[in-house]
């Protein structure tokens, strides 16, 4: 009896296992939308982070010491070359100059007297009517008087320069910054920075390129291509387009061997002084390549570990076990095939494909997120268009 019960129990477990065994999963066919790729002409810009910089910039330093007695400009304003900016207490320098001028006049008087004495002794010496020693002394005194005049004249020049240095003027047209000193501050020559002034029209824009791009910019610098409208433009920090176009001014002397990069300097007109040195912006270089390009929606491109892929539709034949057992031919179907591509510039929601696919390929543009290599796909059920790269 126990043995019969054991058989019944075993049979029950077998029956239960048979009932709970899952059927073999059916092949999943993923609905997708396809795009047959064809080349087309595109117009786009290559973008580079950039910084505005002044073509000339200097720190204003005091060249004489003293107290600041006057400030004659508005901070942050445009100033003209030679415009008076600061004044240092001039009284002592004015007094030194007046004294030097007076000494020069005394030296001139002594020279006149020495010249008269020398002329007189020369006349007497021609008739041997004066001792030779007195004549020699007169000639020496004349030369000394001339040297004293030269020394006094140099002293006047030095005093005049010191007096002039008490007035600090703009070395060139430009924008002046915030004053580092106030009226009444004591300044020391060569060490006290009064202010900074920089040129503002035109203004430079510096950006860095990879050395592989250098030949392109060398050609642009040497050719007349910079006359093409909008070849060089900039986007301002608020993402608005600056209204003036620029041109290449300088390509830096050497490539940085550590980074493989080199600096390019553009020059832009700045008549309204809108651009300020140190601003961040984006240089846009209009691409002049007129050859048709392969362009895909960005959502069709999948990024994986820094590499880019797309899925193409490939004709294939799938033969099931049932078809094989019945001797039936397989069914024609589409399968997804993953292709590695090299991407180029992004243009709005689209992206240029440099290599990896060819004209006529059918590219999956919707449903990419559900695909892997070799999975069957269908276009029978049209999907709603998805946004974003990689089907996101």
Discrete helix count: 5
Radius of gyration equals: 44 Å
Q: Would you identify the regions where 5 or more consecutive residues have pLDDT less than 50?
A: none
- Major sheet size, sense and barrel closure: 7 strands, mixed
What is the fold-level CATH name, i.e. the topology of the largest domain? Answer: Elongation Factor Tu (Ef-tu), domain 3
How widely separated are the two ends?
Answer: 66 Å
Mean pLDDT: 83
Element order, helices and strands? HEEEEEEEHHEEEEEHEEEEEEEHEEEE
What is the strand and helix layout of this fold?
Elements: H1 2-20, E1 30-31, E2 33-36, E3 45-53, E4 57-61, E5 66-71, E6 78-79, E7 84-88, H2 91-126, H3 132-165, E8 167-169, E9 174-176, E10 186-187, E11 193-198, E12 203-210, H4 214-222, E13 232-235, E14 247-251, E15 261-268, E16 280-286, E17 294-297, E18 302-304, E19 307-318, H5 321-326, E20 331-347, E21 350-355, E22 362-366, E23 376-378
Parallel strand pairs: 1-23
Antiparallel strand pairs: 2-22, 3-12, 3-16, 4-11, 5-7, 5-10, 6-9, 7-8, 9-11, 12-15, 13-16, 14-15, 17-21, 18-19, 19-20, 20-21, 20-23
Helix pairs in contact: 2-3
Describe it for me?
It is a single chain. The chain has helices spanning 2-20, 91-126, 132-165, 214-222, 321-326, and strands at 30-31, 33-36, 45-53, 57-61, 66-71, 78-79, 84-88, 167-169, 174-176, 186-187, 193-198, 203-210, 232-235, 247-251, 261-268, 280-286, 294-297, 302-304, 307-318, 331-347, 350-355, 362-366, 376-378. The chain is α+β, with helices and mostly antiparallel strands and 392 residues long. It has three domains: 30-42 and 291-391, Beta Barrel (conserved putative lor/sdh protein from methanococcus maripaludis s2 fold); 45-89 and 167-286, Elongation Factor Tu (Ef-tu), domain 3, CATH 2.40.30; 90-165, Helix Hairpins (Orthogonal Bundle), CATH 1.10.287.470. The strands form five sheets. Strands 1, 17, 18, 19, 20, 21 and 23 form a seven-stranded mixed beta sheet that branches. The chain has a six-stranded antiparallel beta sheet with strand order 13-16-3-12-15-14, covered by helices on one side. It starts with a helix and ends in a 14-residue tail after the last strand.
């Amino acid at each position: 009896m126990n043995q019969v019960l054991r058989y019944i129990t075993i049979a029950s477990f077998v029956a239960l296992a048979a009932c709970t065994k899952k059927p073999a999963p059916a092949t999943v066919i993923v609905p997708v939308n396809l795009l047959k790729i064809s080349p087309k002409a595109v117009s786009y810009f290559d973008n580079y982070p950039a910084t505005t910089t002044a073509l000339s910039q200097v720190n204003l330093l005091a060249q004489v010491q003293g107290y600041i007695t006057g400030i004659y400009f508005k901070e942050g304003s445009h100033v003209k070359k030679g415009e008076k900016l600061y004044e240092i207490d001039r009284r002592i320098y004015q007094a030194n100059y007046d004294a030097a001028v007076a000494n020069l006049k005394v030296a001139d008087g002594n020279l006149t007297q020495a010249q008269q004495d020398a002329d007189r002794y020369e006349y007497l010496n021609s008739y041997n009517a004066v001792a030779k020693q007195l004549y020699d002394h007169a000639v020496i005194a004349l030369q000394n008087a001339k040297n004293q005049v030269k020394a006094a004249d140099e002293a006047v020049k030095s005093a005049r320069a010191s007096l002039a240095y008490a007035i600090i003027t703009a070395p060139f047209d430009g924008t002046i910054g915030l004053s580092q000193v106030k009226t009444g501050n004591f300044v020391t020559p060569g060490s006290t920075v009064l202010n900074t002034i920089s040129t503002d029209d035109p203004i430079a824009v510096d950006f860095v390129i990879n050395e592989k791009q250098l030949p392109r910019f060398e050609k642009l610098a040497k050719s007349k291509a910079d006359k093409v409208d909008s070849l060089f433009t900039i986007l301002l920090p608020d993402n608005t387009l600056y209204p003036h176009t620029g041109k290449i001014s300088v390509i830096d002397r050497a490539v940085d061997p550590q980074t493989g990069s080199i600096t390019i300097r553009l020059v832009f007109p700045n008549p309204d002084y809108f651009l300020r040195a140190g601003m961040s912006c984006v240089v846009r270089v209009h691409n002049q390549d007129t050859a048709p390009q392969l362009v895909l929606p960005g959502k069709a491109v999948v990024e994986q570990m820094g590499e880019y892929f797309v899925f193409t539709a490939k004709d294939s034949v799938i033969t099931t076990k049932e078809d094989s057992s019945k001797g039936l031919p397989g069914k024609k179907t589409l399968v997804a095939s993953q292709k590695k591509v090299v991407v180029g510039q992004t243009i709005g929601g689209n992206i240029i494909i440099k290599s990896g696919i060819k004209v006529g390929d059918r590219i999956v543009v919707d449903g990419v997120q559900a695909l892997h290599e070799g999975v069957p796909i269908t276009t029978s059920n049209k999907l709603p268009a998805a946004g974003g790269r990689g089907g996101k």
